[in-house]
Amino acid sequence: MTESAAVPVSRPSVRIQDAVKSFDGRVVVDVADLTLGKHPVEGLIGPNGAGKTTLMRMVTHSISLDRGRVTFSTGTGAPDVVLSSKAPHAIARRGVVKTNQVIQDFDQLTIWDSLLLAASKAHDERALKIFREPHVWSEYGDEIDEYLNLFPFDNPFGFAKSAGEKKLLDIIRCLLLRPKLLLLDEPTAGLPAGIRDRVMELIKKKATEENVSVVVVEHDLNVIWNLSDYVHFMAEGRVVLQGDPPWIREHATVVEKYLGEGHVGR
Asked: Please, what are the domains in the chain?
């Protein structure tokens, strides 16, 4: 069921067609035809096991599809690119980037070097060889400083320690890759209220001012309602409702049937 919403300028988007993924014989995602990214910020919600994270991973090809096709449009009129035949790193370089729900191990690099490494990956595939070279710093240094001022770490030249610091580091690393379509998996979970609000403001700014299409999976429905311009509701591997947040919220019985007390899990 879909409620139409006015779509503004052409935006980067992915189209998922006839896409199926199963684990141990159980179908986790079964999507006939779905486009993500037509609106600045889109929410992807649903109960535990609905297939939200799996769907995101299918887009970035970090897991393979049993069948189906994922194509990426830049929104500029350039030919669409088939993502389902490309490696994850090649998809990221095309501008389709996803945060990791399970935070990476950042113990090998300081916060500063981790951000420089992400900037280097946006610049050149030989990231490990060039990430401390002057041209990387000259191009990305001001941007890194801006993020570090916005999200003050205990010690930018030390290692990320808390889960919150690692989550913020993951988000900033993704932004330094200069994404066209950004997939955020529970970006505010576990963050203090003040930092959470800054993350939401930054996401909205990237979407509205820099034309980055953002898709958010988030357990906190208040974040979804306040941040999203459009919402996709998944249950049992399928998208069963799509529309503007107020329209989705009016389907209280449907939402409560699947989400219990308004809590959305993975």
From this structure: 13-104+179-259 (3.40.50.300), 107-159 (no CATH)
pLDDT band at 91 (very low <50, low <70, confident <90, very high): very high
pLDDT for residue 207: 96
Which residues partner with 230 through β-bridges? 42
- Residue whose structure tokens are 């299918």: 58
Q: What angle do CA 102, 108, 113 make, to 5 degrees?
A: 100
Q: What is the pLDDT of residues 103-113, one digit of tens each?
A: 566 678 888 88
Query: What stretch of H or E contains 242?
Result: strand 238-243
Range 150-157, long-range pairs (CB < 8 A, 24+ positions)? 150/198, 150/202, 151/195, 151/198, 153/111, 155/111, 156/110, 156/111, 156/112, 157/110, 157/111, 157/112
Share of the chain above pLDDT 90, in %: 53
What region does 264 belong to: left with phi over 0, alpha with psi -120 to 50, or beta?
Answer: beta
Do strands 67-73 and 81-82 pair parallel, antiparallel, or not at all (unpaired)? antiparallel
